[in-house]
């Protein structure tokens, strides 16, 4: 449809309820949606989420704060040189540095989570945690669920935490939303229970997929946990699916993330034309919970 936010008449009909709610919410000065648009009018989106352009400016970090090598380009050159067969073992100093950066990341996540409510934009949440990783300005609607993912770099060490939250009472009353959110949370908890010296890394995925299947949810297998320390994504790779061929065994001094993603329907993904945002092929909801663990 020319000069319209909608792709077609069919798209307009399917999304009229959400469109009406969003514009009703956005009539105030703070959430005026006038002038927003989608640059991909003919793309066959799955689900109800749509891009909102123009994008806001990238938030800046003072030059006095040390930044990782990928801060400007998004490319971690140092990680390209890593030996992927070698898993780092941190000494006492490194372990304490990881505890500190992860405490800070948890605090940032909690601050952002406290602002999650119907009518708030994702751009505002991005501003709250001062991270330019949510490049959208969509208004949160009662009934949505949202994942907040906080990555923090402090004194040479990284932290990476995320959780999924309910937006309003409708989300908490929706059986499917509750099933996907709580099952994903439980999958993470069950994997964490296995974290101890001697556990095979592939056992985390066995526990996660077993519980996911028991609640009729499916694991999004393309994404997994990872080592984390002075590098953001060093070895080991932590698959979240069962019967993986992951190598490695948990040892004291290792630090890594476990962050399962579950889907209500088909876990296969499609990418939007922005080459960044991905969605499930059937448009059904996903949830993710992620936490750093050490030995």
From TrEMBL:
Gene Ontology CC annotations of this record: cytosol
Keyword DNA-binding attributed: no
Keyword field: Aminopeptidase, Cytoplasm, Hydrolase, Metal-binding, Protease, Zinc, Zinc-finger
Residue span, C6H2-type domain: 1-30
InterPro entries recorded: Creatinase/aminopeptidase-like, Pept_M24, Pept_M24_MAP, Zfn-C6H2
One Gene Ontology MF term: zinc ion binding
PANTHER family, A to Z: METHIONINE AMINOPEPTIDASE (PTHR43330)
Family to which this protein belongs: Belongs to the peptidase M24A family. Methionine aminopeptidase type 1 subfamily.
Name listed for the protein in its UniProt record: Putative methionine aminopeptidase 1 protein
